[in-house]
Specification:
The protein has 624 residues and is an alpha+beta fold. It contains 21 helices and 13 strands.
């Protein structure tokens, strides 16, 4: 046995070594195929400039329509990378014009280096600058061999993991909770590797960054000066930093300010309990301060801890579940939630918390008697998830539909359910009381919104409000981009996968439907009465979620609903899918499927889709 294990270990080691060597060869000879023959860099000749002043060292734009013309080496007209230094008081737009091919570019005032990969054959390059008082110098054409270590790491991890998954597919499928941990750890590492170390990769991440650092403070907080640079969304847009060299320069600028402390005023009068959801982020920033880590590394640590919280919530949901293991596994690997969990956002942990709560509820329905550990866990998780978004608090009302015969006596069951109602009222008050007290004005991001005035409008115009809600539900859910947000939405990095997003969404949807309709469920696990409860719950959330957004994020009296993101509806998909799961008589093993030979696809499809998304981000050349 030891000999066999040693042989197997040797074979696996040799395969991994082969993969590593292969990836390096692919990087060297395939991705550098256009420059491998030349492998040089040089200073191009400036043959013309207009609308610019030259003092012998630098060129300075005099108006917003200036240009400079560079002559490419006549021996090799190929240009892989174009580089120059600049200085500007504002971010600016510029264009690369080569043989009538116009490539729009953007640069930030935060750094003074532009390095862009253009990969074009031309004899002349004209650079148009759309700004005044921009100084430029040190132009360079770089055709050197470039080793992208992030791409190499991606290829090694992808190929090695796929080899392992294929070899151990049966074992992985029979232990979906542990398999989820493995896959989620791999994908989390890759997403953090290839996305920027600053904000700009998810919606409202500047607000979440601020709340993560400020945490329970409401008036002011002390932080690093690097924060002021990092939270400036307009100055550090991913459009401004599209090369590794530029990103390194940005991170250096940010990290140099790590030890410079500043006091930031907040004037944040929202309730402190709403900020508890930022605890994982805050722990990361506290550890970073204690260890005196650079700000970019501290930010990564904060995001990592939040991602760990997300993964653990989904892991326990899969572990505790019986017949919905595979469904939760697929939702836990949906790109939209998985990707967002690696950024500054609390939505994924809210979604994961509610998924775990629903899994606990289903488990309580299956057990003969009430397990009070499950009861306590369910209540705490729902409260944790609902404090920042009280709209999800009706999840708590599921406890009212636990059959009384599961309790030791009916009197205890009634007392328990009365306590649930009291907790629900308290949770709802976290949203209602601020309105009644006049402490809630609306969208903290700005805009002509007012919760109290909007509520008055609804009460005085119920028919108009009803039409708005009906139109939203019927129109939005039929739009492809709205549905795509369930699984494929990755914010500002989405354009690279836009052409294939519909196909990926369809593939993911078919996989989920396959799992739903091949799941074996008995009457003991879910009865028709519970399906009716889930139906009411689904319909209720379809109305409550847009209503909440209409109150807090939509201008008063508007005929449309603003601020609604598809991911807000993800928590209600589990009860919705539980409705359509077919029931079978005499089912003894809920985890068994009707077609076990096809079940292995649920491991590979979400993993391959996420690998494709990661590679699409790498192809944009950002975030390494």
């Amino acid at each position: 046995m030891k000999g066999i294990n040693r042989i197997s270990l040797l074979k696996n080691t040799l395969i991994v070594i082969f993969i590593i060597v292969l990836c390096f060869l692919i990087e060297l000879f395939y991705f550098n195929r256009d420059v491998i023959k030349n492998n040089n860099k040089y200073t191009p000749e400036i043959v013309e400039f207009n609308g610019m002043d030259y003092d012998g060292k630098v060129y300075k734009t005099l108006n917003s329509d200036s240009y400079i013309v560079l002559k490419v080496d006549s021996n090799n007209n190929y240009v892989n990378k174009l580089k120059f230094n600049y200085k500007s008081n504002n971010s600016f737009e510029w264009e690369i014009n080569a043989d009538d091919n116009i490539i729009k570019q953007y640069s930030s005032e935060i750094i003074n280096l532009a390095v862009r990969t253009i990969k074009i054959n031309t004899s002349l390059i004209r650079i148009n600058f759309k700004g005044k008082d921009i100084t430029v110098s040190n132009f360079e054409v770089n055709n050197k061999i470039y080793i992208n270590y992030s791409r190499i790491i991606f290829m090694i991890v992808a190929l090695t993991s796929l080899f392992y998954f294929i070899k151990n597919v049966k074992k992985l499928y029979n232990n979906l909770d542990k398999t989820y941990l493995i896959i989620a750890c791999i994908l989390g590492f890759l997403f953090m590797l290839v996305t920027p170390k600053v904000i700009g990769s998810s919606l409202d991440d500047n607000s979440h960054l601020k709340n993560s650092i400020a945490f329970m403070n409401s008036d002011e907080f002390t932080t690093s000066k690097a924060y002021l640079i990092s939270e400036s969304r307009n100055s550090i847009s991913t459009n401004y930093f599209t090369s590794l060299e530029e990103q390194k320069e940005l991170y250096n600028v940010i990290d140099k300010s790590t030890n410079d402390k500043v006091v930031v005023s907040l004037q944040d009068y929202s309730s402190k309990y709403n900020k508890l959801i930022y605890t994982p982020f805050k722990i990361g920033f506290v550890i970073g301060d204690i260890l005196h880590l650079p700000f970019t590394i501290t930010s990564l640590l904060a995001r990592l801890l939040n991602y760990i919280a997300f993964v653990l919530l989904i892991y326990f949901a899969i572990k505790i579940s019986t017949y919905m293991k595979r469904i939760i596994f697929l939702f836990g690997l949906a790109t939209s939630s998985l990707y967002l969990a690696t950024q500054f956002s609390y939505d994924p942990t809210i979604i994961a918390g509610l998924i775990l709560a629903f899994a606990i509820y289903l488990r309580m329905l299956e057990d003969e008697k009430i397990n009070y550990k499950y009861i306590i866990a369910f209540i705490l998780i729902v409260i944790w998830s609902c404090l920042p978004k009280a709209i999800y608090s009706p999840f708590l009302l599921l406890l009212l539909f636990i059959p009384n015969n599961k309790f030791s006596n009916k009197k205890l069951a009634k007392k328990f359910k009365l306590m649930v109602i009291v907790i629900e009222i308290l949770l709802l008050s976290t949203f209602v009381l601020p309105i009644l007290l006049g402490n809630t004005s609306g969208d903290i991001r700005g805009g002509n919104v007012s919760v109290s005035l909007q509520l008055k409008y609804i009460l005085s115009n119920p028919i108009s409000y009803g039409k708005t809600m009906l139109r939203f539900i019927t129109e939005q859910f039929l739009q492809s981009h709205f549905l795509l947000g369930l699984f494929m939405f990755i914010c500002g990095l989405q354009d690279k996968i836009a052409s294939k997003a519909s196909g990926l969404f369809l593939l993911y949807s078919i996989t989920i439907l396959y799992v739903v309709f091949t799941t074996r469920v008995s009457d003991k696990q879910i009865c028709l009465w519970q399906k009716f409860v889930f139906s009411l719950m689904t319909i209720g959330f379809l109305i409550l979620i847009p209503t909440t957004m209409y109150l807090a994020y939509t201008p008063v009296g508007s005929s449309s609903v603003g601020g609604v993101q598809t991911r807000y509806f993800i928590p209600i998909f589990l009860p919705a899918l539980a409705i359509i799961i077919p029931r079978y008589n005499n089912v003894h093993h809920a985890k068994d499927s009707l077609y076990p030979k096809l079940d292995h696809i649920i491991i590979f499809i979400p993993y391959l889709i996420n690998l494709y998304v990661v590679y699409s981000i790498i192809s944009r050349g950002i975030g390494f």
